[in-house]
Amino acid sequence: MKYSRLTKEQFEELHPEFINFLASQQIDKAEWDKIKEEKPEVADQELDVFSDLIWEGVLTKAQFLEHYSKNHIFLFGFDDQQIQTIVIKTSQPDVDFLTKEGLQWLSDAVFTEDVEIKHGGKPFGADRNKELFDIIKQGAILSEGDLYKQFKEMLKL
Q: What is the DSSP code string of 73-114?
C-alpha cells in the first residue's frame, strides 16, 4: 500500500465509487460479501487498492496545503514540478494560531517584529504525490490556498 487506508467514514462517503470500483472487477454485492466472509485478506487488499486510487486522485489534483500549530503556520503551494512554502512564526508565546483570536492577532500584527515570515521552494523528488502525502501525515490539510495566495501577493513573491 502506497498511502494509507481510508477511514470508515471516508469509505461511507465514497460508497458509490467503491461499488463502481468493485463492479469494474466483476465483483457484485453477493461476491463481495462472500470475499469478506471467506477471504478477509483479499477484501483487505481490495480496500487498500481502492484507498490508494482515491489518494492518488486527490493528491494529483491538490495545489495547496496548510499546517497550523500554536506558533507557526506553514502554507504550501505547488504544481507538478516544485513546492513553495511560506512559514509564518510568532515570537509571542501567548499567541495561539489554532484559535480565532490567534488568527485575528496575526492579521493585526503581521507587519510587526512579533511576526517572522520566511519563504522558499524546492523541486519535487521522484514522487510528488508521496511527498504531499508525507506532509499530510504530519498534520497538513488540503486547502483552496486563499491564505497562501494572500501572503504570496503581500510578499510580492
A: EEEEEE-SSEEEEEEEEES-TT--TTSHHHHHHHHHHTTSTT
Q: What is the CA 70 to chain-centroid distance, rounded?
A: 19
Distance of CA 21 to the CA centre of its chain: 23
Count Cα neighbours of 22 within 13 Å in the Cβ-side half-sphere: 20
Q: Is the dihedral of CA 65, 68, 69, 71 positive or negative?
A: positive
C-alpha cell at 86: 511560506
pLDDT computed for residue 37 by the predictor: 94
pLDDT in tens, 119-153: 999 999 999 999 999 999 999 999 999 999 999 99
The answer to whether the beta carbons of residues 133 and 58 sit under 8 Å apart is: no
DSSP H or E stretch at residue 65: strand 64-68
pLDDT at 149: 95
* H-run or E-run covering 32: helix 29-38
CA dist., res. 60 & res. 50, Å (int)? 15
Task: For 29, list phi and psi in degrees, rounded to 5.
Answer: -60, -45
HSE toward the beta carbon, residue 122, CA cutoff 13 A = 6
